[in-house]
Description:
Blueprint: E1 14-17, E2 22-27, E3 33-39, E4 49-52, H1 55-58, E5 59-60, E6 63-68, E7 76-82, E8 85-86, E9 91-92, E10 106-108, E11 130-132, E12 156-159, H2 161-165, H3 180-185, H4 187-193, E13 197-200, H5 239-255, E14 259-264, H6 281-289, E15 292-293, E16 298-299, H7 314-329, E17 335-338, H8 357-364, E18 372-375, E19 395-397, H9 399-409, H10 419-423, H11 427-430, E20 440-442, H12 452-455, H13 491-510, E21 514-518, H14 547-550, H15 552-566, H16 574-577, H17 585-590, E22 594-597, E23 612-618, E24 624-631, E25 637-640, E26 653-657, E27 673-674, E28 678-681, E29 685-692
Parallel strand pairs: 12-13, 12-21, 13-14, 14-17, 17-18, 18-19, 19-20, 20-21
Antiparallel strand pairs: 1-2, 2-6, 3-4, 3-7, 5-6, 7-11, 8-9, 10-11, 15-16, 22-23, 23-24, 24-29, 25-28, 26-27, 26-29
Helix pairs in contact: 13-15
Amino acid sequence: MPANVNPGSTYPLGSSFTDKGVNFCIYSPSALAMTLQFFDHADDVRPARSIELDPSVHRTFHYWHVEVPDVVHGQVYGWKASGPNDPGRGLRFDGDKLLLDPYARGVAVGANYDRAAACRPGDNSGLAMKSVAIDGSRYDWGGDRPLARPWNETIIYEMHVGGFTRHPSSGLDDGLRGTYRGLVEKIPYLQSLGITAVELLPVSQFDEQDCPPGLSNYWGYAPVSFFAPHVGYSVSGDPVDAVNEFRDMVRALHAAGIEVILDVVYNHTAEGDERGPTFSFRGLEDGVYYLQEQAGLRYSNYSGTGNTFNANHSVARRVIRDSLRYWVREMHVDGFRFDLASALTRSESGEPMQSPPLIWAIETDPVLAGTKLIAEAWDAAGLYQVGNFVGQRWTEWNGRFRDDVRDFVRGTRGAVRPLPARLLGSPDLYGPDARGPEQSINFVTAHDGFTLNDLVCYNEKHNAANREGNRDGENHNRSWNCGVEGPTDDPRIEALRVRQIKNFFAINLLSIGVPMLLMGDEVRRTQKGNNNVYCQDNELSWFDWRDVERHGEILRFVRALIGLRSDRERGMTMDDVAASGGLTLEDLVAQTRIQWHGVRLHEHSWSDDDFSIAATARNVADTRMMHVMLNSWREALSFDIPPAPERSRKGWVRVMDTSQAAPADLVAVSDGVPVAGSVDVPAHSIVLLLAELNHRA
């Protein structure tokens, strides 16, 4: 046995502080030799200490372990694993490569880090990321707990931690911009907007060099660790500080009533395809962690990034579940959005599974019982499971909502037919199996694609800045530039674009389901037509805080619309129709709480030649009624409206008209304009009427 070390334990995996020091444990059944190395600094070429583990003492079954006294909080370390390089057997050992601990709570990235060094032959110790031993018990949460807000009260804001405050216009000190602490400084803005949850693009450590040369991976969908918070978002750049600053951010958001949902990437890693760098999993047990094809000579690529994590292997599944538990128990997050979640339903042969063990393990895990679970219910290989993703607790990004709403608002022929279902929470997708109204996460835009501003300003993508010859990114955006590609000084086109933006917000926030908004859409953030800014860590992607003043009309409209949705005493949306606390989508449709119309009452064909729709609905509490008219035609249409309800206090009042400039575009119910008989709805506009009802005798 090496001097001054103890045998150690097989549990827990990773580095864990004990009464005698730190226990290190790592899984690698096929390794023939294992060395633990300690470094004084992230850029050190040579370790300050190396411990070669004796298999007769430090190996139990598939686990290598050692307890080392006198290891301090914040110790930098790494593993070297030696064994056969035999891809046909799922083995790609390279004893020269310094490996990250898959369970490390911190990752140190030195100034000399070089992704390419992990691909080339030879020792890369001085150019590698390194693990950090962190004692998580040293943080005082001060009584903080996850918020457990109901789905029907949830409004999600998808955002990028760095991009939210990195722009010089944020008004923050240089050291705070683009950090967890910087986000904390802007919490009052999030509160004023009215959102209830932030969905953070990946915050576990990712490889910023996983992108074309000369650019930087911005989005973070290139994970090298499932546990460690991204050190690039900390003020100091220290992995220990990154953990504490992340916790500070969560605690501050919770104090403001805002939940924290993490976008987690378990479908692939930054190790890329079979020619990619050896960071961790590849060098420990390649065939366990990655789906293989061609007798192990190639990786299966259901993620579009070169590899696919073998999520339903018992060991890989354990890593995923342990990391989710860590983020809940020790980092207090409220939920998760699973990137390309359909890839997580594939078997070890790559075939879709009816009952994937990982998905059910997450669904039934007691530690995760109170968390929000959101699936991106497709993968890059064409597996599309929107509406039938396994499990009762899982909600889904509703890609059909995005596509159908985009088509309707831009005036696509035939787009009116699916719209009623989208407004109702997509019962055609989620109606079976007694699924509830909040199963659908409704969105028009997300990080991947055009911003809302660009959706109404560009017909084509403009991705030249990505240095991929404009080949990357989606080609079918369902966008409409309103007559001019890009910015314009034409006031008529600008007015139409503002109207279209309001239409998108109105449909999303009036519909049944859980609305999700993209960071900056409320102030017309633009990416200048780039629909794939994954590698643009610059002003093209960042939130420009000058837009808060420049586009205050849109911001006011969104705030008021969120207020209307959230204030169940004074407002009403389609969501209120389903706010019974147990009403399924199937029940909702069966009880006919909604009456559908065309421009004439009770007449609708929803044919390919229709470009309008109207609906009348009564809320569950029987205290108010709503009549909404949507016109995507290029000309104004006159809509008949129902007679005022018998118990109405003031009859119908107009509270929203997206064709109007602020403040007439959206007013309080008490300030609504009385209407009767018929209403002219201008081209490309939405009008909302409300009627408050007296209580029944």
